[in-house]
Amino acid sequence: MRAGDVHAQIEVLLGEPVRLATVKATLAGNLEGPAPRFVRVSRGRYEVSPAPCPRPTPSHAVLRPTG
């Protein structure tokens, strides 16, 4: 999907104007890291990442063995 198409759909969903630069920055900012949300397939074209985004474990959680 092109960034412009994503932008148009976001405006429809929200029912208000959104800056295209904000949409592009969000897409570009979620391409890397341990759980990227998007994959850049070519210049200005993105897909949703096929890998599911894992739920973060709270830093205060302690894993204890069961049994």
3D shape: globular
State mean pLDDT (0 to 100 scale).
80
Stretches where pLDDT falls below 50 for ≥5 residues? Answer: none
Number of DSSP strand runs:
2
How does the helix and strand content classify structurally? alpha+beta
Compute the number of helices.
2
- Biggest sheet details: 2 strands, antiparallel
Order of helices and strands: HHEE
For the termini, the CA-CA separation is 49 Å
Percent range of helical residues: 25-40%
**Rg for CA atoms:** 17 Å
The strands making up the biggest β-sheet line up spatially as 1-2
Strand content: 5-15%
Could you explain how this protein is built, in words?
It contains two helices and two strands. By secondary structure, it is α+β, with helices and mostly antiparallel strands. Helix 1 (3-14) packs across helix 2. The mean pLDDT is 80. It has a two-stranded antiparallel ribbon with strand order 1-2. The chain is globular. The longest helix is centred in the first third of the chain and has 12 residues, at 3-14.
Provide the fold topology.
Elements: H1 3-14, H2 20-29, E1 38-42, E2 45-48
Antiparallel strand pairs: 1-2
Helix pairs in contact: 1-2
Summary?
This protein has 2 helices and 2 strands; from the N terminus they run H-H-E-E.
Descriptive keywords:
alpha+beta; 2 strands; two-stranded antiparallel sheet; single chain; 33% helix; 2 helices; 67 residues
